[in-house]
Amino acid sequence: MASHRRPKQPSRTRVTVLTTAAAAAVALSANAANAAPSAKLSKDEVKAKVDKLYEQAEQATEKYDGAKEKQQKLQKEISTIQDNVARGQQELNKLRDGLGSMATAQYRSGGIDPSVQLFLSSDPDSFLDKASTLDQLSAQQVESLKKIQDKQRELAQERSEATEKLKDLATTRTELGKKKNEVKGKLAEAQRLLNTLTAKEKAALAAEQERANRSSTQRPDLGNSTAASGRAAAAFSAAQSVIGSPYVYGASGPSSFDCSGLTSWAYAQAGVSIPRTSESQAGIGARLSMSQLQVGDLVFFYGDLHHVGLYAGNGQVLHAPHTGAVVRYESIGNMPFQFGVRV
Q1: Alpha-carbon gap, residue 145 to 100, rounded angstroms
Q2: Per the confidence metrics, is the pTM higher than 0.85?
Q3: E runs forming strands in the chain
Q4: At what angle do helices 259-269 and 43-108 cross, to 10 degrees?
Q5: Is 307 one of the annotated active-site residues of the chain?
Q6: H helices then E strands: how many in the chain?
Q7: Cis? peptide before 246, omega within 30° of 0
Q8: Segment 153-180, tens digit of pLDDT
Q9: In whole angstroms, how far apart are CA 186 and each of 21, 53, 65, 198?
Q10: SS3 144
Q11: 153 C-beta neighbours (distance < 10 Å), count
Q12: How far is CA 44 from CA 50, 139, 194, 202, 329, in A?
């Protein structure tokens, strides 16, 4: 006998899911069909974006340099404190040993009450001499105890200071890693954009950069500009000696540089120590207007002061510009000048 059972109907939930999925598929297909392909950037547009990324990378580089400088400073301070603690512990041990020796000597002299010793003594004068010695030992013990307490407090303070600096160092290392990754990320994005260009466009951009590097490494007409001082002249001369060296973030010579790496290295060759970062270098002297600049003065650019160079005279700056460029001359008007500083 044939079965007249009705076929099983799909559940309402299943129908809803299938309907929703089908609708979504149709919508995606429609969007895909209607979506316009992303327009390819022109060579000039890519260059503009890459230049902006290089500027952002340099901003991050200066923060990276600052964190690196702080890390090195903290490491030196921690090492000094740890050395002091080690020496202090040795001194404390000697003081404790000395106190122990005095206590032993006093114990061996007898633990009898002094008045009883005087009563039993056959030679009162000799006993009084011994009693005087005992008083002297007691005074030395008091003084030793005081020294031990002072040394313990001093060591506790130094250990506490070292602990705080170690925490600061850990934070600084984290910041250093973040800034390094930020720089690398900006440079990677710039490279990704450059990779969208054709071989012909890449060659054209490379040729432009090469021409800029080559023409700007030749000494321009600097007029009769004079140096701010003998050391400024020596610093400027040192910077001239590395013209053509590549820009590398975080580098401070002698074969590659970032902007503040070049200026700090140049002045170090003149026997002058200045801070590592552009922001710190901006605070080491009186600010100068463009009309007050002399050769060797530091010149700062952009509102956040993330770029620095050396004034070369006649409206020119000698600097390490950005990734892909070399140490070279450039017109001071090519960047937003803020002020100068005389070292």
Answers
A1: 11
A2: no
A3: 287-288, 298-301, 307-313, 316-319, 328-331, 337-341
A4: 60
A5: yes
A6: 8, 6
A7: no
A8: 889 899 999 999 999 999 999 999 999 9
A9: 40, 6, 16, 21
A10: helix
A11: 10
A12: 10, 87, 11, 11, 23
